[in-house]
Amino acid sequence: MVSRLIEVGDFDLVIFGATGDLARRKILPGLFRRHAAGQFPAASRIIGAARSDMDTEGYRREARDAIAEFGPRDADEAQIASFLDCLAYVAIDVTGERGWSELGALMRPDVVQAFYFSVAPALFGDIAERLARHAIAGPDARIVVEKPFGRDLASARALNATLARHFEERQIYRIDHYLGKETVQNLMAVRFANMLFEPLWNVHYIDHVQITVAETVGVAGRGAYYDQSGAMRDMVQNHLMQLVCLIAMEPPWHFDPDAVRDEKLKVIRALEPVPPGDIVRGQYAAEDGDPGYRDDVENPDSRTESFVALKLRIANWRWQGVPFYLRTGKRLRDRTSEIAVVFREPPHLIFDDHAEQQANQLVIRLQPNEGMNLRVNIKEPGPGGMRLVQVPLDMSFAEALGKEGRDMPDAYERLITDVIRGNQTLFMRGDEVEAAWAWADPIIAAWENASAAPESYDPGTSGPDQALGLMHRDGRRWREIKA
Ligand code: NAP
Hints:
There is one protein chain. By secondary structure, the protein is an alpha/beta fold. The protein has 2 domains: 11-146, Rossmann fold; 179-411 and 429-473, Dihydrodipicolinate Reductase, domain 2 (2-Layer Sandwich). Helix content is 35%, strand content 19%. The chain contains 15 helices and 15 strands. It has a 9-stranded mixed beta sheet with strand order 14-13-12-11-7-10-9-8-15, with helices on both faces. A 6-stranded parallel beta sheet has the order 3-2-1-4-5-6. Helix 1 (21-36) packs across helix 13, helix 5 (124-133) runs parallel beside helix 6 and helix 9 (230-248) packs across helix 14 (430-449). The radius of gyration is 24 Å and the shape is globular. 42% of the residues are buried. It binds NADP nicotinamide-adenine-dinucleotide phosphate (NAP). Residues 16-23, 50-52, 92-95, 118-121, 123, 146-148 line the site of NADP nicotinamide-adenine-dinucleotide phosphate.
């Protein structure tokens, strides 16, 4: 099935932080893919901005390298050349005055203007202030703000206030790239475009929900940043929280940015505080000569968590009594992200073969191999009585929808295109981010005031034993961490 392409309008997109890791690995290759797919008009322009002294030709060479390394394997030379033609570069120090008038001279007032803040968060305010002061951003310009959006409620509020001095909420696109994943959007399609699941989507039919985001890598290379953050700030408050919202939200009245975000906000506000007994923190240990977490962050006393598991409760009619178990961590057994909605057992079992009958599960895989499967019980084929076996009704999106197995569009491709289109549905609103911090802050504060260190866990496992205990004591078990 070939996806429909809707061309966007003419645009000028400025990437602040154009020479950085994110621009090289995600933004430029993503833009290239959309350009190659024919989604961008010929007159669209992408303007790189960073301090490095370089001219446009130099930046085009950098972009060519980035596409060669992180772009599609089958990139065509004519397509690359046509993409590079759209690029320009301006050397700007966002904390100073250099470069702004050159940038202003390049911007066209009559096309969509978007400014991607792909720099350290400490610089977001400088960029917003100078864009306004130099009158570079028009009244409908959009700004794209990367994560992390604050490190607690106070800093998120301060950042929202800084941005609000120069831009209206309708102009601010706070990225959570999880929302750009095809499967995550499909969660809404599956729930709200089908009659099949929604009647069952509540405490009467769902036993619990499990969300796992597991990585095999450690924090080496970004230890200094990570040690100031930890799994709670880096993953739970934003990405896992967004997944919880999409599973738990009420149907919005329309697929419209504020209608969707209003419903997500209600979920966050309905979260109960998490008691200390319902949360487990972990740190990966050293093993076989491989460094442990504290070695990776070069802080022998670090108490920052590289793993969190917790049990979440949502206080509303739909979800009262249905636990949401969340876990995420580094150096785990496999790299996998999934949501499993585990249904209740049937009220009465008529088959003798009880042992093999298992609760239905709807498993939504975010990575690898985005897709969904519904695990159902059927009769094992063959004679010899009624024996049951659980099988997946499997749907891999790449197989079902991909063009000759072409990989699924990357989240950044989708999200940047939405910015240019002016659609904020998949971006976090300011009040949503603040509500998520208001929930996370007391948990983090309790850890910071506690003397206990996170539990140690062996690399290549599913985390500390205590995390298994979180489920076992409720008579449930985590799904295996398996790609
Ligand atoms: P990075 O590799 O450190 O790049 C930072 C960029 O900012 C460089 O282009 C740098 O170029 C530019 N820069 C620094 N100071 C500047 C200044 N005063 N004026 C103008 N430009 C300046 O960072 P990154 O990994 O790309 O991350 C960028 C943002 O994305 C951060 O907010 C990060 O948290 C977020 N993010 C990154 C990733 C990722 O995978 N990398 C994932 C999620 C979120 P010059 O040195 O040439 O000025």
